[in-house]
Automatic annotation (TrEMBL):
Origin: domain of life: Bacteria
Annotated protein name in UniProt: TIM barrel protein
Pfam families listed in its UniProt record: AP_endonuc_2 (PF01261)
Residue ranges of every copy of the Xylose isomerase-like TIM barrel domain listed in the record: 79-293
PANTHER family linked: HYDROXYPYRUVATE ISOMERASE (PTHR12110), INOSOSE DEHYDRATASE (PTHR12110:SF41)
Amino acid sequence: MGQFAHDFDRRGFLRAAAAGTVAIGAATFAGAVPAAAAQTPATDARSRGACLTIPKDAIGIQLYSVRDKVSQLGFRVVFEELSRMGYKEVEFAGYTQDTSILGRQITVPEIRTLLDDNGLRAIGSHIGIGAFRSNLQQELDNAEILGMPNIGTPNAPSDTPTVAGYKAAAEEFNGWGEAATARGLKLYQHNHWAEWAFASDQPEVRLYDVFLNNTDARNVYLEMDVYWAFVGQFRYPGFDPAAYVRKHPYRYTLFHMKDGTSDPNAADGYDMTEFGAGDMRYQRFIHAIGPFGNHHGIWEQDNAPGTQPDPPGSLGAAQHSYTALADLLS
C-alpha cells in the first residue's frame, strides 16, 4: 500500500472487522425474522441454492456507502479493500477524492486503471439530473471510459408530484435514454420513497406508475432500491415491490440491497442498518421477483459512515454486509 500506509492500517481494519458489532449469518434470515416476514410454503420449497436472478458471484457496492473512505483514503485503498472482501462490482457516486492523495484530482481514466488492477467492474453511476441536462455527452463519455454498462440518477423524476409533472419527466428521460442506448448504455432511475406516493392532482394514481408507463422500455431502465420501496409500501400501502419486477423483469437491471429494522413508530416504518442486521423480507423478495431477468445486487447503506467505531467504520459495515449478502444468495 506504500504511500497510503500512514492513512490506513490493513491489519487494524481486519482486527476491527473481525470483532464487528453486528452478528451476521444464516440465523439473521431464519429465527430473527418476525413471523409476518417468514417464508411461505411456496418459497420455502425453493431451497437454498435454487437459481436466483440476483447472482451471488457479482455482488456490488454503491460507493456512497463508503464515501468518507473514498474521500479520505482515495479510490486505490478503497478498491483494494473491497476486492479483498469479495465485492466484484461498484456503482459510483462521484469521481473525486481528496486532492492531497495525488497532489491533484484523480482522473476518470486513472479510476478505470484502479478498477482493472483490483479485478472490479463498474456497473453503474449515480449522476444528478442537472448533469444530464447540462453535460449528457460528457457523462456518457465517462461511463464508456469506466466500462460501465449502466448510467443513472438517484433523483426523483420530477419535483412536481402531479401526473403532468411525471409525464413531462418521462419524456425527458426518454430523450436521455435514447442517447444512452445509442452509445450502448442503459439509462436508469433509482427510487426513494416519494415516487410511490399518489399524485397530488389525481390521488388515485401512483406517481411511480406514471413514470413507468410513460417511459420507453427500450431506453429507460430502473434500479429498485428495495429498502425505499418497502418504506414506500409502509407510507403508501397497496402495492408489492416484487410484483413490479415480476411484471417488468428486464427493466430492473439493478437492485439496491439495503436493510432495515422494523419500527412502526418511525415515519418510514424502518430504521436503516447493515445488511443482515435488519428484518426486511429479503428471503421472500429474492424468490418472489420471479425467474426472469438478470438483476445485479448492490449493497448500500446511506448512514454507514459514523454508525460504528472507526476503524473499521463504513468499511466494517461493507465487510459485514457483503458476508450477509453472500449468505442470502447462496
